[in-house]
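Just wondering, does anyone understand these tokens?
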Amino acid sequence: MARAPEELRGGGDGGGRGREHGREHGREHGREHGREHGREHGREHGGEHGREHGREHGRRHGHGHRLWVWRMLGACLGLFVRLWAKTWRVRWVDAPPSEPVVYAFWHGQQMALVAARRGTRGTSLTTLVSLSRDGELQTSVMHRLGLHVVRGSSSSGGARGLLGVIRAVRAGADAAFAVDGPRGPVYRVKRGALLVASRTGVRIVPLASAARWSWVLHRAWDHFEIPLPFTTVAIAVGVPRHFDPTSEGALQLAQAIQL
């Protein structure tokens, strides 16, 4: 068989060297491209992670800061209301009972709580405050006024809140409920006070207040009443009695508060 010319056999060696060079170049290019891609991906991923971490930290820090502001504002407002209430001339229509009870009143007459706190038998008065942002403010106010606060509401965390009030009453405390709160409808009794009284066996005392001079916030859903300084505030204490934790019992309690 005839042999290929020498220059053609040499071309085979050149092709092998070309393939080897191509493979080396491909590996080098791949490594460089991989490193560049890794750096780019790291920068992108790290930057996104950093931004997300920063946003989460900002949300937490901002939420904590807002809570601190609400609490400080509530403490200042509570001190102001406490000094304001000291100027009232409070007159009791019938005396508060000497046993643990559940006080029931309308949301718009919450300032009756201040006077009632000064006139009860000296035990702790427990109240239920919603878990909302407004509830954070109200909690600080109530603490400043000397009340024990349990957080919860009819719409969120209600069962846990009611259990806290039940424990306090069983330990000998009085409880106070704005029975149409926290958001109405106005003059429609919710079942919280009825359930606490039923589970603890204590009686409910309808409570109402009236001031000789007061501001009434007519645009508020509850027609909130603010007795003016140095005015006379009458606290009407209803007859302590048991109410069934039913719609009929709620209607009877509403009528008793109105009377």
User: Anything to note?
Assistant: The chain has a mean pLDDT of 80.
